[in-house]
Structure prediction request, 978 residues.
Amino acid sequence: MKGLFEPIRQTAWYQKALTDLREKKPFLIYGAGESVQDHLAASFSYATGRPLLIVAANEVKAKEIFSEMKFYDSDGTYYIASKDLLFSSADSQGLAVADNRAKGLRAIYEKTARTVVLSVDCLFERLAPGKVWQQSVLTISQDTELDEDDLFQRLADMGYERVEQVESPGQAAIRGGIVDIYPIGDDTAVRIELWGDEIDHMSRMDPDTQRSIGDAVDKVMIYPVTEIPIKEDVRRTGIDKIRKGLEEGLKKLQKEGMTEEADHLRQMTERTIEKLETNRPVDLDNYVTLFYPDSGTILDYIDPDSIVVLTEPVRIKERMESLTDQLSLSVAERLKKGYLFAEQQDMFPTKAEIQKGLTSFARASLCGILGSGDDYFPVQDIIAIQSQSINVLDGSGSALLDELKGNRRANMRTVILMDSTTKAQRLSEMLKEDGLDASFRGSLDEEIRPGQIVTARGALLHGFSYPDAGLAVLSMDELTEKGRRVSKRRKKFTGGQVLKSYDDIKVGDYVVHENHGVGIYNGIVQMSDGDTKRDYFKITYKDNGILYVPTTSLDMLQKYVAGEGASPKLNDLNGKDWERTKAKVRAGVAKLAEDLVKLYAERQSRPGYAFSKDTVFQREFEESFPYEETEDQLKAIEETKRDMESPHIMDRLICGDVGYGKTEVALRAAFKAVQDSKQVALMAPTTILAQQHYNTFTRRMKDMPVNIGILSRFNTPKQTKDVLTRLSSGELDIVIGTHSLLGKNVRFKDLGLLIIDEEQRFGVGHKEKIKALKKDVDVLTLTATPIPRTLHMSLTGMRDMSLLNEAPMDRHPVQTYVMEQDDQMIREAIYRELARSGQVFYLHNRVNSIAACAARIQQLVPEARVVMAHGQMPERELENIMMQFVEGNADVLVCTTIIETGLDIPNANTIIVENADTMGLAQLYQLRGRVGRSTRMAYAYFLYQQGKVLTEDAQNRLEALGELTGFGSGYKIALQDL
Prediction:
């Protein structure tokens, strides 16, 4: 990056800044816009060779800076996410944050992090002392002697969970001399094969297949899962302090007559103690000072030679003050409600501790306008600079040429960044044709001469210039009207281990033997066969019948899978009931197969309509899409068009997470059909969703000669009659509605494309009518989590499927919490959303008590506009309330699962679900999909009743939801159901 940094090094102000850095004198530079601040920070590391710690005022800003800094140093830049300080006591906060932080701390430890970006929130987190964390890192090399018991105690101290089979980061397993560890922050697990205490072989292992991969490895580093690792002596001391603190806390609450709060404090704390005593993973964020009185912050982990860069210190000061007030209030409320005892109230560092920590580093404060943050972050020098943000050009070539010619006359060095090498090379050729001496560079490591124009691959949020240094940088954002189209590193989609291997069978599980039916697995026993000893699976049947299955005949057994909580009837080893069951199932399967094959054979044999190739209008319509398509979207659009242009009837399933662009695929298919004078019907499962689709279609096609109508309960009888008349005459091109489109009075003149949104939400009767309608027309089905039969037909080739696994630009995974229900937490979650002018879904799935729930929420948050909706309300009233929320005229919607499907409300980015343990995994996933449909961070809180002991199934569901927080998880959940 020499070409971008050397020009400013010659200025007097920059030399002054470098002198201050060397002498560790804190200084402030003002006159620096956002992209200039990032460029300056990167230049400090370039000029001094020292690592950077960049602090932002909030998480959104930290992520923006991280994205920008990756341009300057793609391999050495790390972003460390903050934990959610207000919800640190949640049972689950998802693996994404833990994994992100582990990778960041690991890079700091290994000194591969040249730039660390974080928000000020991160500084308000107490961690174990840096030396404790570093000493807990476990290094295993080929010559390490390992005692299994010692190893697992060490792993437990580091926060690893012992399981039968590793599937997620932070787990460890042992089976017959084979140790599998899935280190936090790694993409693969480690398999260690032992011979006694010696390592016989060590390799990487794929958790999806449970097989070793690649060559043998000589050394592995295992990093702590917890940021508060504890050895046995520290554990015992900490438990004693917790017991003492609990005793004092109970006395205080009981003295004040707060028996419920005292009971809650006792139950919650005793659960923590039990986990500590049994070496189970436990979150110690609330107890850190009881284990480590000298606990520190993340500043203790940072290289002391680092340069701390504070971006917009006034904003950082405001956030620190706001956060201090919020945390103080939260701690006070938790003490009062029995969530903490007195010894825990210093669980967050103070402003003074953070300020003191920052003073130990060389420090640079950067801002656009001089503000009043000096009392927080005193400086010894204030440096004014000349820099400018590049004004956005109008997208025309002449504007770019005028800008470049002006720069050349001023003898400015100009760098133009394009999002691909091809585009950068093409632009340099075009500029040469226009008489400008431009050159493409594969890297910017060489100096750029004054007056020279250089094109290169790269992307920044905004361009900038330093007039006194003679440097201007333009990004794609300044060159196009559409805005920045950043070329992202594509993430490989891994389907996960969706059909469990037999290793996952546990004692007490139901299993199915191919010849003998359903029994209960009772472990592996060893039996003698002459001089030979063999292992057998022991299976118990009805009336205590016992079957021993050789482990070599594993293929005869399957794990029994059924609906949640289902207990199957055991078969009789000596009876005929299993044969009768198999015969009945064979007949049923044969009938189903016959019906399906007949239907799909009919479709394949019957000639379909071959739509024309794309027209100029089609290309114009597609180019009006205001966003950057993902690669998966483009592939799905191409596959859909290819099907439509073929002579066979299309039946394609578009499977993608909520907000992944399924509707745009449908829009382009619909427009293509209309180009050939064919009619299109879009069927949605609810009136509200149909209305949203209608709004989207009319907005996208407003400049095109397309007539769109809707059949909805919002229509008057006159409007409905008009739509039906225009539909039958062919005047209407596209009609959108619910199952009302299947009515006898609906007549199409020439239907060519049927689009079905969330087919699984329609009833059996509606599906039969849809099936009849499907025979003659192309069908496009949109879904996030397809029903198992639909998915199975796609996987076996009976239906074509396109997968949308890639998140749109600037989309964040939903931050997911699993926790006990608590009014204080609910209040804080709602207030946090309202503070950013957002909306909240509150799901209470009992109609008989929903009114009382809505009144309770109104009492908790008096300022909020709370409305209530459930399926037993009169239809008109329900639709009016839903539209009120959709249009932003209500803040909190207390509702049942009627919101489960398809609602698109980008401003609603918090969902709170009561009694989440009673719901299915796919249902919870769909509910979480109601939020996170904009560029804002979204939050999902899944609550269960205080003191309730969760069933194993419920716990597994909630844990799975916490783990599947990444993008593209809907398909994995459908596969789990399948």
